Write a sequence for this structure.
């Protein structure tokens, strides 16, 4: 960190970069989850209520990794 | 970064915030924090609302009774009944309590003078997740007995025996350790991140306004406008997270109760 700051003048926490990287996977995953839901609803509108539970379920399970990123970014900040 | 901090400090803001900000001053000092009081208020709001709205139940419901009944029927039929099935109705009070209690706590994140959700403090989601963890294990053991419950939870049916040395630790990890952990972290991190984002845009506006370049000062208005938009997003997230916590509890109870998993 000190070396990077000395050579480039950039300073701050590397955790911010780490969180950016950690968010890529969940971002793709959430995209897939919602794409699948939109797809299924467009094909069969009456199934919207039936699949909504699974939409949120899939969404929160995928999201968990990004949230770990936030929490551990602070836990391991030092 | 240090440059921005000094701008905020120069503006007379208490910056940076510290753990001391959580405590109430005076007599209560280390024992009662602001969060404790907020949790009491949230519990009182939920209890008073349901007691008052259902004090004199009528066949043709009043407005308050209608709202209370709608919330309860959402927790009972929409979550417990749909996810767990017929057996789930007896968990409806627990699920609905989680839904309303966490909902009220989360909405405090955008209520003036509270401005932070108690669930943005890891202690409270951790306690809620612990209760849920004990409950779903207890329910499973009571239904199946210890041996069969742990067999159901750690040995997926249909998997070949030679995979078991790999599957048992993995399933154990995911069902008994990762589950309560993610339950707590999800609620905490969502509310904490929401609080953080609002703070970033509010203080970003302050820093922009304090800029020495005149042309940059008006941009603070954009930052604060963004704050308003994000407050609505925060309301959505608050209610969604309460729903998600309740629904995940229902799913975990369902996997404990199901015969084969």
């Amino acid at each position: 960190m000190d070396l990077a700051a000395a050579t480039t003048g950039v300073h701050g926490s590397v955790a911010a970069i780490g969180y950016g990287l950690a968010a890529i996977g969940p971002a793709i995953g959430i995209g897939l989850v919602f794409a699948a839901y939109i797809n299924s609803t467009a094909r069969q509108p009456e199934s919207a209520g039936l699949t909504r539970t699974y939409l949120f379920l899939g969404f929160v399970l995928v999201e968990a990794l990004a949230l770990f990123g936030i929490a551990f970014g602070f836990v391991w900040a030092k | 970064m240090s440059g921005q901090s000094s701008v905020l400090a120069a503006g007379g803001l208490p910056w940076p915030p510290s753990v001391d900000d959580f405590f109430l001053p005076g007599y209560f000092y280390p024992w009662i924090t602001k969060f404790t009081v907020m949790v009491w208020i949230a519990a009182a709001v939920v209890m008073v609302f349901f007691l008052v709205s259902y004090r004199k139940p009528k066949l043709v419901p009043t407005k308050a009774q209608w709202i209370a009944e709608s919330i309860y029927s959402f927790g009972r039929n929409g979550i417990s009944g749909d996810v767990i099935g017929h057996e789930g109705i007896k968990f409806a009070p627990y699920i609905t309590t989680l839904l309303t209690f966490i909902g009220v706590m989360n909405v405090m994140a955008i209520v003036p003078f509270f401005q932070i959700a108690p669930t943005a403090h890891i202690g409270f989601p951790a306690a809620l997740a612990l209760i849920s963890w004990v409950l779903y294990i207890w329910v499973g053991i009571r239904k199946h007995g210890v041996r069969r419950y742990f067999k159901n939870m750690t040995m997926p049916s249909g998997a070949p025996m030679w995979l078991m040395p790999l599957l048992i630790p993995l399933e154990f990890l995911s069902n008994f350790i990762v589950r309560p952990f993610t339950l707590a972290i999800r609620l905490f991190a969502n509310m904490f991140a929401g609080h953080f984002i609002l703070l970033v845009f509010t203080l970003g506006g302050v820093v922009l306004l304090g800029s020495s370049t005149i042309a940059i000062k008006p941009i603070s208005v954009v930052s604060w406008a963004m704050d308003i938009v994000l407050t609505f997003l925060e309301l959505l997230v608050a209610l969604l997270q309460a729903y998600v916590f309740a629904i995940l509890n229902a799913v975990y109870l369902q996997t404990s109760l199901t015969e084969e998993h």
